[in-house]
Design goal:
Elements lengths: L2 H11 L21 E5 L2 E4 L4 E4 L14 H13 L8 H13 L5 E5 L2 H16 L3 E5 L16 H5 L10 H4 L2 E4 L4 H10 L4 E6 L15 H11 L3 E5 L11 H6 L5 E5 L9 E5 L1 H4 L18 H17 L2 H22 L7 E2 L2 E2 L11 H4 L4 H14 L1 E2 L8 E2 L7 H15 L2
Parallel strand pairs: 3-13, 5-6, 5-7, 7-8, 8-9
Antiparallel strand pairs: 1-2, 2-3, 4-10, 9-10, 11-12, 12-14
Helix pairs in contact: 2-11, 3-11, 7-8, 12-15, 14-15
The structure holds pyridoxal-5'-phosphate (PLP).
Pyridoxal-5'-phosphate binds next to helix 4.
């Protein structure tokens, strides 16, 4: 079964042939490949091609694919059973690890996806503050729940409908959307909605509109304004948690949010999410408090085992300086090739996250990200893919590296990407 015939079958049975829209290659054109297996930095397609993977399953695979230690941890857990429907020892170990690395998190609730984590954190903030409105930022993606799927970047942006159909206007009215990196817009929104904002949620470094970092001092302004107006600050670190530092962006930027959402890496490649923060807020969750949240497979033993092993390896190996060197190597190679070609490319990078915007405009929010030439990105994407390097199939997604990319894979990728730039 090759990718083309699998995609034909899939399209008859699954809307668009995919179970998550960006996988469909709509914004770069062409048909997606199907992956048969993955190991280290390499995906093997159903057609037998080997590709250097810069998507890393959209973030989780920080140790590379199918790492022997994570595999062994899952196998050991499997011996004991796949799901119990009662508390299990792995959940306690996972909670201890999260609390250890995120000092802002005193208590944590585990769930099965990042979407659940952000949706539940928002409900908790509303229940705790007894206020209905929330603030989010254009281009920040927090999963696909109703309140948050408004100007949400990522797949929604790629497909040209930043506001999804099916979200009632009455729900959307409770979500105030502001430009990222603009403290005065936030100040004005608080002034316009006095005593009504339950929380402000953001990706402290944006990774779902391409990669965007905050201006110096911006996150501190957000922290000060939320505190002054009695709104909770929620850091959505589903992508950045354990990727840029063990303690996420909040460790790097020395900010203490009230609540934090996690996912991706903490599942080691299996489905997991988590949200946590101040104990007095978290204790508003059922069964202690009035805010309901639940999950049949929450704290699933296999997912916990995979995630625990992933986090332990990060603790032991402290790979962040190495990952940053890899990220810089790729950024510098592409930037140099673009410069030689006279092509304007913005290549923001921190650690193992980066992206390429084909624009002369420095990118600092959704509006400037949209100045990127998406058609040129699509040509770059396909030139890389033809050369054996798989980038995220959208101009508005971040690239990821893993420790498994070190050495030959990243050297080869830089050659391919340099040639791809030259071919544009
Ligand atoms: C991926 C992501 C989510 C959603 O997580 P899912 O597991 O896909 O539901 C939420 N927030 C951010 C910042 C993400 O990158």
């Amino acid at each position: 079964m090759n990718s083309a015939s699998l995609f034909t079958r899939a399209q008859q049975l699954i809307p668009g042939g995919v179970n998550s829209p960006v996988r469909a290659f709509r914004s770069v054109g062409g048909a997606p490949f199907f992956t048969k297996s993955a190991k280290g930095a390499i995906l093997t397609t159903a057609d037998g091609r080997e590709l250097i993977d810069f998507v890393c399953t959209w973030g989780p695979a920080i140790h590379g694919h199918n790492h022997p230690r994570i595999k062994a941890a899952i196998a050991a857990a499997l011996e004991n059973g796949t799901s119990f429907g009662t508390p299990n020892p792995y959940e306690v170990e996972m909670a201890e690890l999260i609390v250890k690395f995120f000092p802002s998190i005193q208590k944590v609730r585990l769930c099965s996806s990042g979407t659940e984590a952000t949706m539940s954190a928002i409900r908790l903030a509303r229940g705790f503050k007894k206020r209905d409105k929330i603030i989010k930022f254009a281009g920040c993606y927090h999963g696909h729940s109703d309140s948050l799927l408004i100007k949400a970047g990522s797949g929604a942006l790629t497909h040209g409908n930043p506001d999804s159909a099916g979200v009632p206007a009455s729900f959307a009215r409770e979500t105030v959307v502001l430009p990222y990196n603009d403290p005065s817009a936030l100040e004005a929104a608080f002034a316009a909605n006095p005593g009504q904002i339950a929380c402000v949620i953001l990706e402290p470094y944006c990774g779902n509109v391409g990669f965007i970092q905050p201006d110096a001092g911006y996150l501190h302004s957000v922290r000060q304004l939320t505190a002054r107006h009695g709104a909770l600050l929620i850091f959505d670190e589903v992508m950045t948690g354990f990727r840029l530092a063990r303690g996420g962006v909040q460790e790097l930027e020395k900010i203490t949010p009230d609540l934090t959402c996690l996912g991706k890496i903490i599942g080691g490649g299996l489905p997991v999410g988590a949200f946590g923060g101040r104990a007095d807020i978290m204790d508003h969750l059922a069964p202690l408090g009035p805010v309901y949240q639940a999950g049949t497979l929450s704290g699933n033993p296999l997912a916990m085992a995979a995630g625990i092993e992933s986090l332990k390896m990060l603790d032991e190996l402290d790979p962040y300086a190495r990952l940053d060197a890899l990220g810089r190597q790729v950024r510098d190679a592409v930037s140099a090739a673009a410069k030689a070609k006279g092509l304007a490319v913005q290549a923001p990078q921190a650690g193992s996250m980066f992206s390429f915007f084909f624009t002369p405009t420095p990118v600092r929010d959704l509006a400037t990200a949209m100045t990127s030439d998406a058609k040129l990105f699509a040509r770059f994407f396909h030139a890389c893919l033809d050369g054996g390097v798989y980038l995220p199939p959208s101009a508005y997604e971040a690239c990821f590296l893993s420790t498994a990319h070190e050495g030959a894979a990243v050297d080869r990728a830089c050659e391919v990407m340099t040639k791809a730039i030259q071919s544009l």
